[in-house]
Automatic annotation (TrEMBL):
Domain D-isomer specific 2-hydroxyacid dehydrogenase catalytic: 62-176
InterPro entries for the chain: D-isomer_2-hydroxyacid_DH, D-isomer_2_OHA_DH_cat_dom, D-isomer_DH_CS1, NAD(P)-bd_dom_sf
Gene Ontology cellular-component annotations: cytosol
SUPFAM superfamilies: Formate/glycerate dehydrogenase catalytic domain-like (SSF52283), NAD(P)-binding Rossmann-fold domains (SSF51735)
Listed Pfam families: 2-Hacid_dh (PF00389)
UniProt-listed Gene3D superfamilies: NAD(P)-binding Rossmann-like Domain (3.40.50.720)
GO-annotated molecular function: glyoxylate reductase (NADPH) activity; hydroxypyruvate reductase (NADH) activity; NAD binding
Protein's recorded name: Glyoxylate reductase/hydroxypyruvate reductase
Lineage: Eukaryota, Metazoa, Ecdysozoa, Arthropoda, Hexapoda
UniProt keyword terms in alphabetical order: Oxidoreductase, Pyruvate
The species this protein was found in: Culex pipiens
Amino acid sequence: MNTILKSSRLLSLSATRLSTSSSCGFFQGSASSRSSFQIRRNCFNFVTMKPTVYVTRNDYARIGLDLLKEDCELTIWDEPSPVPREEFMKNVAGKDAIFCSLNDRIDKELLDQAGPSLKVIGTISVGFDHIDLKQCRERGIRVGYTPEVLTDATAELTIALLLATARRLLEANKEAHTGGWKSWSPMWMCGTSIKNSVVGIVGFGRIGQEIAKRLVPFKPAQIQFCSRSDKCLTAEELGVTQIPF
């Protein structure tokens, strides 16, 4: 939810500002033709059309899409799955902005198809390997992404998986549903306690550090990590131990 909100706000603000700054002027035409366009007045009282945004799937959080709709005219791929390449290419032409995810490849071919009107790309992802940044820089296209927004969620899911694995929760759940559990047994599916154990973390960036913080209340004997860079000060603050990579 935080990802879609952050990305939507950034895209809406950027598309609106860029559209306004590059197309200020008065709409020419009859009253009837003007009514066929969604128009608004900016703070300088110029009349402008809403910037157009292509949204690559329909299952983004509704609150984020509603935020975009306040200032932008949306064209949405009406499926809860990545938009097919052919469909993407067909509908991106002439758009002011693209709202995408890591499944959508934004390369030279697609940027050529979008044309010079494309001013901003917003992706709801921490990474941006799917976007050709070199091409975007050459064309003056701004790119927005959502760094750090998934750090806490990833750390929480890691702890959940650690607990599920150590305490054999998935195995026990399966046995309970398939008749494998007959009666109480003192050692059946007990698993392993995190308390007094040694827990290792590979990598100690933002996510690794958040995992370590969440592990401390479980009272492991030691939390160890390996990292390509020296994290001695951070390790000392968190009470964890760095070992050779």
